[in-house]
Structures are given as structure tokens and as C-alpha cells.
Amino acid sequence: MRIAIPRELQPGENRVPVTPDVAKKLVRMGAELLVEASMGVGAGFTDAEYTEAGATIVADRKELFSSADLLLRLNKPSVDEIELMQRGCIHISYLDPFNERELIDAFKAAGVTSISMEMIPRTTRSQKMDALSSQANLAGYVMVMKAANHLPRIFPMMMTPAGTLKPANVFVIGAGVAGLQAIATAKRLGAKVTAFDTRPVVAEQVQSLGAKFLEIDLGETGETAGGYAKELTPEQVEIQRQAQKDIIAKSDVVITTAQVFGRKPPVLVTQDMIEGMQPGSVIVDMAAETGGNVEGSRPGDVVEWCGVTIIGTGNWASEVARDASQMYSSNLFNLVEDNWCEEKKAFEVNFEDDILPGCIITHDGEVTNETIKNIMEGEAQS
Amino acid sequence: MRIAIPRELQPGENRVPVTPDVAKKLVRMGAELLVEASMGVGAGFTDAEYTEAGATIVADRKELFSSADLLLRLNKPSVDEIELMQRGCIHISYLDPFNERELIDAFKAAGVTSISMEMIPRTTRSQKMDALSSQANLAGYVMVMKAANHLPRIFPMMMTPAGTLKPANVFVIGAGVAGLQAIATAKRLGAKVTAFDTRPVVAEQVQSLGAKFLEIDLGETGETAGGYAKELTPEQVEIQRQAQKDIIAKSDVVITTAQVFGRKPPVLVTQDMIEGMQPGSVIVDMAAETGGNVEGSRPGDVVEWCGVTIIGTGNWASEVARDASQMYSSNLFNLVEDNWCEEKKAFEVNFEDDILPGCIITHDGEVTNETIKNIMEGEAQS
């Protein structure tokens, strides 16, 4: 089977989908591996390292797409790229399938099997393939480092002959994978950390990291089978906002990580709350690129409002591209290995598997994913 | 006594010499306090806060200089500013007296008493006034944060279902106040830290922070009475370089903090060592602005050499201006309080004091500091 790794073209993307280590493993499994020239540069890997791993370097990007049996990637493709692929080709990447109708239609028309890394379920067996979690984990770390670099104060308490510096107050909204890592990193640095999540079940995890869990009585809330927070009613969002207002005013750093699977994230920090903060304070909006938890955050940018710095950088994991590539690459490899047929030396699309079918969006000219199919049919009717 | 606080004009300087808290204390001691308009802006303090503390806001900078009995500042003045001051006026700030002959001559000619914050001795009683140490402490923290923000890896070890990320290797050269804080901060973040210092006496302090002390046999070394490393012979510097070469090649981050009191810092990381590092590695040169420990570092800037990022930002403490201002301001206040005559409600220049005389560079038209006088006379004769 001919596996191809094109270079990522998205601006600001330094991660690579396959590291030389993983390349070596794929070759050892019997794959013919084609790597686009300079593919690894963003994360500091040279073409020579891939050649040494047994891959062939290809300069012609179009040839790479048209000759591949399996494409391993990070970001979603363009429609033009899909049109270059062979019928029956398999394309694995992030896909954002809830929003990318046009791409899904293109995959369908091209007869390409598209597999979405976002759809890897959160089960014990699939953890090793769960790229959303591996990248969110790194994002949690990066957001704290960004905040520390913009804050005109230090995180730890410091007792000196010239007096004591108080520890920074950090408030983390959302205690999923990214939020928990942000809490852990801020605690490590010596900050005083408080966190909130609409799922009371995570209070214990927050506390076990040494942070305080903010109790807000929202009435009935819960989490999905996938471990995401269920969407709140407008009334519940308002109660949450009011309860957080005080603590936000007293915080040096606020980090928001509230996401709802497949939907626009809720706005949790409004302008009046930002205006209540001390000048020099910092807000990190993890969701800035998908709509934002913070009013006034600008995707991919750092802005100031009333002396408060609002960081909306996005693609957080790409800031630690070397480690992020190792993790993502490992996730991809585990998925490929799990579906590899040793005899045929090929990735087998098996609809009987317990993980794979839920991640397949299109196959053989059809949208096979039930959730996506239902949404698309619903839209077509309305 | 009329105390004046002019605004700092040095580019990139966000710290302020006097915070509103300290302003209040000075007023309570009986000082008449004049603050230049917008003086506190860089560190997030408003004119209103100073007015509330009992200070008067002055818009005319020249008037401020010419009417002051005592000037409290961070950075050295310009010759023009010195010429505005009254005879008998006292000026306290960093002065860099080993290099600023022109300023010393101007102070002498103007009959101003110039007090250098760098000359505060490192004794138990003067610790509370020791601004070099308080700011170096913060610099140690900032340098690690800067490195973390440029490194394409995370500092801590991370064990995940997709494999283990190894901790970053950090090498710190020089274990003075800044070096020790850099070690502590990097350890906090979970890095594997090794450190070296020419003074074997600090090995225990390094180890007590959980870092490894690199043993290099340099023959006879030592420290000055002030706690600084003694300058090495060229042969010793070469031995140190060779011994460090290996560990630098294996490090993700190298932080250099080697300074010799009153002299140019030694070059410890040479280009061939940088070329031996992995692409993506980061070097922080604390001394970039005073000559540099690292070949190719650019003062006030971040540059890349063979894929290695070299950070020479300088004025590190200004990055955490709020905390740095609190510390510096407290150092200044302790010095003023220590020399305050309650009856006269004035700063008294007492040459019988155990701390003050060593910090006075000029007084009543003379260079009174013995060390500086000897250097200047030596230069005049040669």
C-alpha cells in the first residue's frame, strides 16, 4: 500500500502528521512511504531523516495526491486536493465534519474514504488514537505559558528580603483535558488556581491537582457519552456568568476552555467582566478560532481591552510542534496499525470494527456516518 | 524634603521606581512628593493612585528636576538632566559607575550627590535594599518563561496513552541569584536541570533545588567578598568551554547568567557549540546587553543560528514590571528610610554609615567612592 504524507499548508502550522520515527514503523509494516519534500521542516525534521527511515521524497505534490492509496495528514484538505485523489483512496485527518459540508460532498463525489480524527471515540481502547485529547493536553500547557509571558507579574509566591510577592490568581473555566493540564501547569508554576466546569463530576479531579473548584448551582447539567459538557440553557449560562463575575475580577489570569462537541462554544466572559479586571490581567480564549468564549477575542491574535490582554492565538499545540507532532503521529500510527492487514500489507476499512466505522465520514461514494448523515439530511429538508 | 519621581524614558522600560504604596509611606514620613504625570503607566499605576497616596502630579519635567532635593529613579540620568539639578541634590538610581565616566563628571560638576544602586553591598543588613538581587531573581524566572515560549517542546515529562514525552533538558551556566531562580523555575515546570558555576561553594545550593551540578576541575577559583565569581584565566575559560560542550549539545535549553562584577562578561557559548545543538533548541543570554555570554546573541533581540533560537532580550525584570516595580520600589524605600532623619524630615548623607558611603559615587563636587576614584585616576595616568 502506498502511503503519502503531503506537507501541511495551513498558515502557522508547524506540526507534522508523521515523524521520522513513525515513518520507520510504517515502512517496517510493509508500506511504501512517500513524503513530500520539506514536509517535516516546521517541526525541525529534515528530508534526510525520512529517507533514512525508508521513505521516498517526492517533489511533485500533485503526483503525491494522485498516486496515494492512503493519505495521512493533520489538517483538512482543499476541494482541489480531493479531486486529485483516486477512487478508493483513504484520507485520514482532522475534518471538522459538522461544519465542512462542501468537503464531505467532494469526498463523496470522488469516492474517497474520509476518516475524521475528531470522531475517534473516548473509550479506553481508542485512547491511544485520540488526537483531540493529545493535542488539547499540550494546548493546556501552552496557554499557561502564553499567559505567563504576557502577565506583568510572576506566578509563584516569592518571599524576599524586600517583601513578599503574592502568587498569581488563575481561574480556569472548563476542566476537560486542556483545562486540567492548564490547572496542573499553573499549579506547578506556583499560582493559586480556581476552576469551574458545568460537570460536577470533575470537581474531584480539579481538587486532586491542588486547585479550588468553584461551586455554582446550575440545576441539572451533565455530560455526553463522549465526556463533553452538555449544552446549557440560556438561563443556566446567565447564572454561570454572574457567579463567575466576582472571581474573574480578582483573577490575574483567566483561561477559558469551554467547548461543546459539534457546536459553537458559549460566550462566558463578557465585556463588562473584562472591564472589571485589573489592568495588566490576561485572558486566554482557547476557543477564539471557533467562535470564542470571550467577548472581543480575535482569532489568531493578541488584543488589549481596557488594559486587559486577550490572547486568541489558536492552534496552541503547534507552538510546541515537536512534541505535538510526536503525539499526533503516534495517534495516527496507532489507528493505522489497528486496521492494518499483515497479509495484504494494507489498511483495511472494516465496518465491523468497534472504533473505525464511527470515524468514517464517507466511503465508496456515500456518507456513511449516521450523525453527519442525519444533520445533512435535516438541513436539506429545512 | 522634596522628593521627585520622574518618568523613566529608556525604551522598553515598564518598571517604575516608586509604586503608590511606597509613595504613601514616603508621604507619611514627612516628604513632599512630586510625581511626573503618567510616571506609573508602564506598570499599570494611574496618576490618581499617586494623588491618593498624597503625591502631587507635575507635568513639567524640567521643573521636577530643578526643584528636587532628592530624585528616586531606576535608570541612569542623561547629562542634560544632571545639569538641571540643584547643587546638593541627591540622585539615587542604577548608575553603571564602572563605565559611565561622563555622567560621573557631570554629577561632580553639578555638585550632586549620586548614589548607585549597584553598589549596595551584599551584607545581611543591606539585603532589603539590594535591587540587583531583587531584579536578578525576577530575571531568572522571566528567562525560563521566555525559553519555554520559544521551545517547540514542553518542559515536563508527560506520560500519555500515545506514549511518553521526555522532560526537557535545561543547562544553566552561573548559579548566582538569577541562575538559582532559573534553576528553581525550570525544575518547577518539570525539566531536567544541570547547572555549572565556577564557585564550587554553590554546588550544594544547586543540588538542594533538585538540579545536577556539573563538576569541572578548573584548578583554583573563588568568589569576591561581594559574592561574585572571580574572573578566570583564559586557560580556565577554555577548560570550562570544553567541559560544557557535550552537555550543551544534549540540552534543549541553555541559560547563561555568568557575570563578573564591574567587567565584561565572559563568552562561554561559542558558535561551534551552538552548531552542535539540535534545531529548535533555545539559548537565553542574560548578559547580551553588556557584551554577552553567547557568540552571536543580539542585545534586545531574538535571533536564529542554524535553527537554534538565541534570546538576548535584556531588561528581563521589566517583563514582569508590576512585581519588579514592587521589589525595586521597596529596595529604594528601605534605603531612604535607613537614612531618614525624623527631625529634619530629610535624607541625611552620613559618611559614618556602614552601607551608604560605599554607594555614594560623587558628593559635594568630588568623586568620593574609592574604587571608582582609583579607576578614574588610573585611566587618567595611562
Automatic annotation (TrEMBL), chains A, B:
The keyword Ion transport does not apply. Residues 4-139 form the Alanine dehydrogenase/pyridine nucleotide transhydrogenase N-terminal domain. This is proton-translocating NAD(P)(+) transhydrogenase. Pfam families: AlaDh_PNT_C, AlaDh_PNT_N. Keywords: NAD, NADP, Nucleotide-binding, Oxidoreductase, Translocase. The keyword Protein biosynthesis does not apply. GO terms for molecular function: NADP binding; oxidoreductase activity; proton-translocating NAD(P)+ transhydrogenase activity. It is an enzyme of class 7 (translocase). Its EC number is 7.1.1.1. One of its GO terms (biological process) is NADPH regeneration. InterPro entries: Ala_DH/PNT_CS2, AlaDH/PNT_N, AlaDH/PNT_NAD(H)-bd, NAD(P)-bd_dom_sf. GO terms for cellular component: plasma membrane. The transhydrogenation between NADH and NADP is coupled to respiration and ATP hydrolysis and functions as a proton pump across the membrane. Belongs to the AlaDH/PNT family. It catalyses: NAD(+) + NADPH + H(+)(in) = NADH + NADP(+) + H(+)(out). Residues 148-312 form the Alanine dehydrogenase/pyridine nucleotide transhydrogenase NAD(H)-binding domain. NCBIfam families: PRK09424.1 (NF006942). Gene3D superfamilies: NAD(P)-binding Rossmann-like Domain. It comes from the Bacteria.
